[in-house]
Amino acid sequence: MRNKFLGTGEKGYHPLRKFKVILSGLRFSMIDFSVSYKLVLSVLVIVPSLFLHQWVDSSIIILATVMMLTAEMFNTVVEAMCDYMQSDYDPKIGMIKDVAAAATGIAIFAWIVILVVEVYELFYKA
Ligand SMILES: Nc1ncnc2c1ncn2[C@@H]1O[C@H](COP(=O)(O)OP(=O)(O)OP(=O)(O)O)[C@@H](O)[C@H]1O
C-alpha cells in the first residue's frame, strides 16, 4: 500500500491483499509455541463460557486474550527488529527488549488473573 508520508509503495486500496498479509502475520505468530499454547488455553475457557451463555464473561476473556496476543506479537516484532539491526551484545538493545518484555509480562499477568477468576466463576462457583 502507498505510504502517505514517504510517497512510496503501490497506489490504491487492496482489501484482499491486506487480508492475505494479516493471515501471513497470524501464521508466523501462531508457530511460536509461547503464543499458540496461550491461545489454546483461552479457547478452552471461551468455548464453554459461550455454551453457558455467559456473554459478559466470554467478552472479558476474549478481550484479555486479544490484549495478551497483541502484546506477544509486538514483543516478537521488537525482538526480531532488534536482532536484525544488532545481533551482537548491546546494552541499549537489552534495555529495549526488556521494556517490550515488561509490557508483555503485564498483559500476560492480567490475562492469567482473568482466566483464573473466570474458570472459578464458570466451573466451580456455578
Ligand atoms: N543483543 C542483545 N544485547 C543485550 N541484551 C540482550 C540482547 N539480546 C537479548 N538480550 C537480553 O536477553 C533478554 C531476552 O531476549 P531474547 O531476544 O533472547 O528474548 P527471548 O528470551 O527469546 O524472549 P521470548 O521468549 O519472548 O521470545 C532481553 O530482554 C535482554 O535483556
From TrEMBL:
Its cofactor is Mg(2+). The chain crosses the membrane at residues 21-47, 59-78, 99-120. A divalent metal cation binds at residue 79. The active site is at residue 72. Pfam families: DAGK_prokar (PF01219). It comes from the Bacteria. Signal peptide: none annotated. It is a multi-pass membrane protein. InterPro entries: DAGK (IPR000829), DAGK_sf (IPR036945). This is Diacylglycerol kinase. The lineage of its organism: Bacteria, Pseudomonadati, Campylobacterota, Epsilonproteobacteria, Campylobacterales.
